[in-house]
Amino acid sequence: MVKITSGAIVPIKAMQTAVAARVSATIRATGRRYLSSRRLEHAMANLSSSVGDLASRFSGRLLMPGSAEWEAARRVHNGLVDKHPALIAQCLGSADIASTVRFARERGLEIAVRAGGHNVGGKACCEGGVMIDLSLMKHVHVAPEQRAARAAGGTLWGHFNRETQLHGLATTGGVVSTTGVAGLTLGGGVGWLMPKHAMALDNLESVEMVLADGNVMRAGAHENADLFWAVRGGGGNFGIASSLEFRLHPVGPDVIGGLVAWPVDRAPDVLRLFRELAAKANDDLMLVCALITGPDATTKLVAIAAGYFGDAASGDKAVWPIKSLGQPVKDAMGPISYTALNSMLDVSYPAGARNYWKAHFCESLTDEAIDTIVDAFMRCPSPMGQLLIEHFHGAASRIAPTETAFALRADGFNVLVLSQWMSPADDAVGTKWSRDAYAAIRSFGGPSRYLNYFDQDDTGDQALTAAYGPNLRRLQQVKAKYDPENVFHLNVNIPPKA
Question: What keywords were assigned to this record (predicted)?
């Protein structure tokens, strides 16, 4: 007997017949084969004869092709990603994850891992394999006396922030609240608290991992320390994070922050002000500059967003130069709740929009770089496209590049060309703009790039060096120890090498 997506209970033979019929109907209805016939036959032959065995030791939901639930669950945040797993395992805990890993490995099926589903490169899904979906695992437990919180692997930052803010606490975690905790943390973790409390990964105290052999292991500073070093910046290369424990800090509930925007013809002046403020910013101040299009989908704008995490009087003084730059079209800078600050950009990143990103790290923002950035944005073909500049400084930059696997520890500016649009008809234009803008901007940067902004075509030795820098060799050794067969390869993949 086995559970199927409708919630009914049927004999395994009947379920196998139903699955085969669903797949065939889906192929006929769409008028195309989303898998090659050989891959589809292989995947379904492996699954139809044995999925009942997995169901007997699985507490969550198993979704098969052809069901409405499967169709919804295979979709990730980036609408440009269109992949079709043969099985989606929506897990409720580490035991479900471990059972699914073993099940997939025994049948030679590729494994993709979805936590928040925000990965722009679409690594959270796969074609014809098994998608391990943690989206039902959203529990957060806060221990206010210890200033600590543990989050399940599918938790989103908005949920995490609301739970910790009940106790006046927070940790560094994203600037968009619909982002997943696990993926953002393991790849770095840019957030508003970054200058004061370092990256999200720097606040990680321990992590529970399901490894490639299906075993569960806890890693921390004094327990499996090599694995703990590697997962902080090595992404999903080493296993599946079923829960993560964070160090918390007193924050909020209200801070000074928000956004001020001007017409785009002020962009050179605004970017120079941004550069000036960045040069003298203390650890309490986080700055982001954005070239965007207004709500009318026509008017191009330039904006500075800020968050200040010291006392209110000092915060007012710190953001005053932003507010006093003449004639803004919008001034939403002032007292704001920490949770509102962390969600104010959500509307700019709707689920299902088609995204193609390119990012580069610049240690300085020269006049020539500013002019190039503005010119690149003026060529943006979509009102949803953006060009963002995140200021890296403070606590995050004072940590040595080899202390964790995350090597991007310099002061400077993370420049993101964020191409975004809705219609498939605009795919070629949208990707071309991002590539062209990136090609123009990258000459002002160094060799490093921020791992979480890698897109699906960022592969090869050059990408590995840009992502992992001096830590690559050690990461390969840890990979060889914990995942020698490279089971977890849908990521910015580190080849195992002893």
Answer: FAD, Flavoprotein, Oxidoreductase
The enclosing H or E element of 389 equals strand 386-392
pLDDT of 21 > 70? The answer is no
- Which of the four pLDDT bands, split at 50, 70 and 90, describes residue 371? very high
Where do runs of H (alpha helix) occur along 35-138? 37-48, 51-55, 68-73, 94-106
Which class does domain 254-453 fall in?
A: alpha beta
pLDDT in tens, 107-124: 999 999 999 999 999 999
**Percent of the chain clearing pLDDT 90 (strictly above):** 86
Q: Which residues in the chain are classed under CATH 3.40.462.20?
A: 254-453
- Measure the CA–CA gap between 309 and 140, rounded to whole angstroms: 24
Minimal CA–CA distance to 382: which of 428, 441, 416, 414? 428
Task: Name which CATH class applies to 140-250+468-482.
Answer: alpha beta
> Tokens representing 484?
């020698």
E strand spans, 134-284: 140-143, 148-152, 169-170, 204-210, 216-220, 240-247, 249-250, 254-263
CATH topology of domain 37-133: 3.30.43
pLDDT for residue 10: 32
